[in-house]
């Protein structure tokens, strides 16, 4: 899809970039709100694994299709990151500058907080500071160790961010169906991992409810560590597969794929005018 994983080419204080930051804020707000509540009023991370009398659980589809819709909305404005793990990966591969990437992540985290606050106002019985059991709070299930929680979140986030790279940076790209593929990937990961960790796959998604409802602070760092490392690993793997514009990576060796127009002798991408321009 044109715009997926693309950022405005304007400078840091340009109207284009401010619009992109607003898009990341609003997108993260809406994803925390819509993705945090299932059709049955249960929060992702609170849906119990059923052993009898099973009822169809549409939580994976609700989360995946919500993400796809929000990426469609924001892709042509901000690149449709909506996930600090995605932004971190693209910072590492040079598709977004560190300065812009940090602002993106801040907007995503703040948006998630406001999304959780809005959820508290819209869901009956939900209250700020409610604690354990609040809407959208993530935690591991009984029998799942902290190490397993970390491992599941790392693996699932790695898969999600790898798919983002594949549909947005890989050749040939997947065009307008890219956001849908990303959303379906999230649905698949939620289907697999929700019974163990609640399947966050997004540092902002777990951050907002934790801050607003004061739930499971002692688990936040495990989710963040797994998700950020999963995104980082996906970015590192994407470098030799799809190329990079990061000078420090390009200097490591000529065996890695380089973007079209890269001038190895000059040591920079000939088509890039400045650090604040180009792809995410």
UniProtKB/TrEMBL annotation:
GO terms for biological process: one-carbon compound transport. Keywords: Membrane, Repeat, Transmembrane, Transmembrane helix, Transport. Pfam families: MIP. The chain crosses the membrane at residues 12-33, 101-123, 149-168, 180-201, 221-242. The keyword Aminoacyl-tRNA synthetase does not apply. The keyword Chaperone does not apply. One of its GO terms (cellular component) is endomembrane system. It is a multi-pass membrane protein. It is found in: Endomembrane system. One of its GO terms (molecular function) is water channel activity. Its main location: membrane. Signal peptide: none annotated. Belongs to the MIP/aquaporin (TC 1.A.8) family. This is Aquaporin. The lineage of its organism: Eukaryota, Viridiplantae, Chlorophyta, core chlorophytes, Trebouxiophyceae.
């Amino acid at each position: 899809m044109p715009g997926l994983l693309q950022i405005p080419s304007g400078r840091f204080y340009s109207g284009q970039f401010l619009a992109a930051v607003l898009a990341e804020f609003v997108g993260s707000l809406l994803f925390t709100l819509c993705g945090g509540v299932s059709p049955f009023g249960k929060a992702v991370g609170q849906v119990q694994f059923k052993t009898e009398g099973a009822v169809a659980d549409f939580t994976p589809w609700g989360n995946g299709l919500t993400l796809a819709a929000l990426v469609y909305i924001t892709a042509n404005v901000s690149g449709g990151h909506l996930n600090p793990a995605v932004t971190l990966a693209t910072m590492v591969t040079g598709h977004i500058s560190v300065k812009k990437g940090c602002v993106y992540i801040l907007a995503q985290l703040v948006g998630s907080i406001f999304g959780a606050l809005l959820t508290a106002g819209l869901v009956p019985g939900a209250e700020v500071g409610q604690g354990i059991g609040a809407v959208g709070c993530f935690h591991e299930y009984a029998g799942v160790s902290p190490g397993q929680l970390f491992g599941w979140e790392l693996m699932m986030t790695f898969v999600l961010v790898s798919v983002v790279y594949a549909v947005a940076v890989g050749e040939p790209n997947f065009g307008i169906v890219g956001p849908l593929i990303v959303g379906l990937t999230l649905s698949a990961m939620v289907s697999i991992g929700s019974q163990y960790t609640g399947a966050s796959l997004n540092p902002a998604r777990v951050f907002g409810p934790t801050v607003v409802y004061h739930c499971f602070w002692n688990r936040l760092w495990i989710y963040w560590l797994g998700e950020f490392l999963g995104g980082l690993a996906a970015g590192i793997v994407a470098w030799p597969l799809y190329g990079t514009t990061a000078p420090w990576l390009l200097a490591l060796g000529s065996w890695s794929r380089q973007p079209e127009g890269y001038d190895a002798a000059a040591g920079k991408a000939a088509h890039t005018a400045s650090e604040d321009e180009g792809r995410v």
